[in-house]
Amino acid sequence: MSKERIKISEDLYDIMPSDYQDLVKSATYGKEDRGWKDIGSSKELIEQHSLCAGCPESMAFRYILASLPNPEDTVMVGSTGCTSLVFPMVAVHNIHSLFGNQNAIASGLKRALSVRFPGRVKDVVVLAGDGATVDIGLDMTLQAWFRQEKFTTICFDNELYANTGGQESGLMQKGFVAKMAPVGKLFDKVRLPEIARESGCHYVVNCTVSKPSLVEKVIRNAVHIAREIGPTYLQLYTPCILEIGKNSMEGLQEMRDSEKPAERFAYKEYVSEPAKQLLAELAAKDKERKAAAKQLAGQA
Amino acid sequence: MSQYRVLPGPEHFLPPAAASMGIFLPNPGEAHINGVIVSEEKAYEEAARQFLMAKVPTIFPGPLVLWAWNEKAAKKATAIRHLYNTLKECVQPGQMAMLIPMPDYRPKYPKINPEVEINPNHPNLTIWHNKIDCCMFVGVHCHQANLSLKIIRGGTSCYTIAMCAQAGHEDAMLSFRDASVEKIMKLADTVKRLKGTVQPRQTSAKSGSSN
To answer: B106: which chain A residues are within 8 Å (Cβ-Cβ)?
Structure first.
């Protein structure tokens, strides 16, 4: 797991566009403790993006890509939606699936990778919107969890179908009126985190992406637990500022408002017993590693 | 035998896959020119001639050679650089050899910078921008090469050459197969040998920039 695998041929180095040269020179592939703090001091794995100005989804993308523990050996599976506009600019292997099929694709992919690369850690991460995860793809989402498929499912919950103009989705809050849902949502927001827990997910988190350190923590936990134990699910609030009538600079505040204690995105976490044990082991190893590094630095 | 010939376009918006028109791939030791099977020797001569006639002869190296994922890839990259240097030496004033990479296949539309790269999903943008009238694909995965070659044939008048490491490309106007360092070097030698014997076109062929 290192940059050994992404070397540019020396004789053609000079003609490579600078973004590729930067990826090789200063991206954090192979860095053990990579995280959101690398943003600004190293090449990000997202070149640019085509989302709207101020879109919280773009923040989420940057934090997630900075936090994946093993990006060079990770395959992300996306679905139709705003996220699919971003994947072409992402320097992590990714597959675009038919709308709603993402968890079925990821199941096959994870199994194929285990057979093809038995000695190597290969992570699969599904990243899709609420329409793909909860409405159109709910069957595939749940079946993957029932089967205990070892990958992480991330839902970017913006509570409606954003890039088709604001239709009602299962994760929309009750009573919300959108451009293409003028009557207002008649039933409650689907409680997918609870459903995920009951369906066999070993780690479930419901939160916003207002705090990069929190996003980093939950992503790392989710990927490590999925790798070793079983399915994990993250539901991240990434409001569509256009569809809820906010301005570009108001996305962050919208997330902060929605994560207050009684609000619908107040931090919620479920960790199964085996997952708790794994996290404790990982924390102990991490502590040991940091102590050793400190000692080494002291000697130097 | 098919009457269809793989010729410089612009053919039309959705040109047929040459294979569906009865064009088939060469056997080992052979190549094809315009869909007609020929000896490899003849193909070297024709490819070199097309390069020397072109106003903007261009090589498009793909990910299989741009990235040093094994020793062979790095050696091919060296051979490609040699071919490009040879082309630069052999073209006449008014001609301009180019070497433009296709680093990966992500659809970068509409942000492609045609001056520095080519993308298989809209290769015509780079061809038009640089007025390229003869190009060679090398180190591009076959599926992406076929896609690009068809788009180029459909929308531009650029002459296309494929230096394919597998079985060749029907959709190129000229295709080698089983590309190796030796074959790339031999093409460079042929270009050198034909230097001065071929007159460059006076005008860009219906112009590579035609759209």
So the answer is: 88-89
